[in-house]
Write a structure and sequence with these properties.
Strands 2-1-5-4-3 form a 5-stranded antiparallel β-sheet, with helices on both faces. Helix 2 packs antiparallel against helix 3. By secondary structure, it is of the alpha+beta class. It starts with 5 loop residues before the first strand and ends with a helix. Strand 3 and strand 4 form a beta hairpin.
């Protein structure tokens, strides 16, 4: 397994509707990853509703195994209740400050890319439509952001 690799990325709307989902590992685990993403919404709400939390970066929610992969699941939520969920393959049992900075930067960069796509009037809110050139460009941006080390 490679180090610092993203396995799955999801953007989920205010009502729990999928906005964007991208799998970076074998497609045989896609349903399991999507299920885990929806399961993590409860953790996100629980962590976000704490009165002392002003930070949109929620950090590590939990760890899980899917197939042969051990994954850490991280989350970020915007003030508009858009939830970003990142599954990172655990390559090392020791978390470093550099890992946290990289994950936080990944969330902010994808949020910036998402906002750039959302303000385009030709998208019509269909980020899951794989035929749109805007969606293809957004997906390429997400690929690039998630695969950097």
């Amino acid at each position: 397994m490679e180090t610092k690799k993203v396995a799955f990325y999801a953007i989920v709307g205010k009502q729990g509707e999928p906005i964007f989902m991208k799998n970076f590992i074998e497609s045989t685990y896609e349903i399991d990853l999507e299920f885990a993403a929806y399961s993590s919404l409860d953790y996100i709400e629980e962590r976000y509703l704490k009165p002392d939390s002003n930070d949109m970066y929620l950090g590590l929610l939990y760890s899980t195994f899917i197939g042969t992969y051990e994954l850490n699941i991280y989350a970020y939520i915007t003030n508009m209740q858009i939830k970003y969920i990142l599954f990172k393959i655990v390559a090392d049992i020791f978390k470093t400050k550099e890992d946290e900075v990289l994950i936080r930067r990944t969330f902010t960069d994808i949020n910036r890319a998402y906002l750039g796509v959302c303000i385009n009037p030709f998208l019509n809110g269909k980020l899951m439509d794989k035929t749109s050139p805007l969606v293809a460009k957004f997906e390429a941006t997400v690929d690039e952001i998630c695969q950097r080390k």
